[in-house]
Design goal:
By secondary structure, this protein is of the alpha/beta class. 44% of the residues lie in helices and 13% in strands. It is built from eleven helices and five strands, in the order ααααααβββαβαβααα.
């Protein structure tokens, strides 16, 4: 050590040697105190064995509630040494979305709108629906019903619609995980379809399908008790036919969507 060398070789006092080397005298007198973390380790291991899904916040609150003598810093240090601090799952950042004007399409297949809904059977089993409408006349194109509707299932449903009606110019949708999947983006590019994602937290930018969802929930999902998925599918198919062909739509001059389409485009058949 520099101080000991100055004191031995040059006969300096400890004070002068410390001043010459720029070291505080208290540094020479420091003796590390051995830590006894056995109590902290026992407490943490016992607590986590009983509450394996609790994090550090609940652990610290429990230690304070029980009157343990250790502070937050000691608990956190030992907690990390025991490798209990799991990394947080970062929130997926969405790209910035540009607000798209909500304007009715001028002709069929100019723009579609998509959205998901969820409900439950009488047994409590959850299921989802994938709804697609044509923005021109609010015609319900498809309602897919199942317990799980991943991106692959969404692509299959849209692909079947494209085979029957042709590809739309664009599809308006939100930022759900199924709608921002790479597979859906590649499929849309292969079909020449533009995906117009609304801004996060702005469901009014997808108002056409949101209004359709309300009608579907009011007249079907909230109106009946279903015991099986097949009952949901059958009732949905029957309602969708009545909605498109017989139910007057106020924004279309109080005529059904299909009648409105045939009235304006009599030579267009799907």
């Amino acid at each position: 050590m520099v101080v000991q060398s100055l004191m031995t070789e040059h006969g300096m006092s400890q004070r002068r040697a410390c001043a010459a080397s720029g070291i505080a005298r208290s540094t020479l007198r420091y003796r590390p105190v051995l830590r006894d973390d056995s109590g902290v380790i026992t407490f943490i291991q016992t607590y986590m064995a009983l509450n394996p899904r609790h994090g550090f916040g609940l652990l610290y609150d429990s230690a304070r509630h029980q009157g343990k003598p250790w502070g937050k810093t000691v608990l956190w240090r030992v907690y990390c040494e025991l490798k209990l601090n799991l990394p947080r799952r970062g929130k997926k950042r969405l790209p910035s979305r540009i607000k798209q004007p909500l304007m009715a399409a001028g002709q069929p297949n100019q723009g579609w709108s998509c959205d998901f809904m969820s409900d439950a059977l009488w047994s409590g089993r959850r299921f989802r629906t994938f709804n697609v409408i044509d923005e021109f006349n609010r015609e319900g194109l498809r309602i897919e019903v199942d317990t799980s509707l991943p991106a692959g299932r969404v692509i299959r449903a849209l692909n079947e619609l494209v085979e029957v009606r042709g590809a739309p110019l664009s599809i308006r949708l939100d930022n759900g995980p199924e709608f921002i999947a790479t597979a859906l983006t590649k499929w849309a590019q292969s079909k020449g379809i533009a995906l117009n994602h609304i801004q996060p937290g702005k469901p009014t930018q997808n108002a056409y399908v949101e209004r359709f969802n309300k009608t579907y929930r009011t007249e079907v999902l909230d109106c009946y008790v279903f015991e099986s998925l097949q009952e949901v599918r059958d009732m949905t198919a029957d309602w969708l036919h009545r909605y498109n062909h017989y139910r007057p739509h106020e924004s279309l001059g109080r005529i059904p969507p299909v009648e409105y389409r045939v009235k304006l485009f009599p030579n267009l058949y799907f």
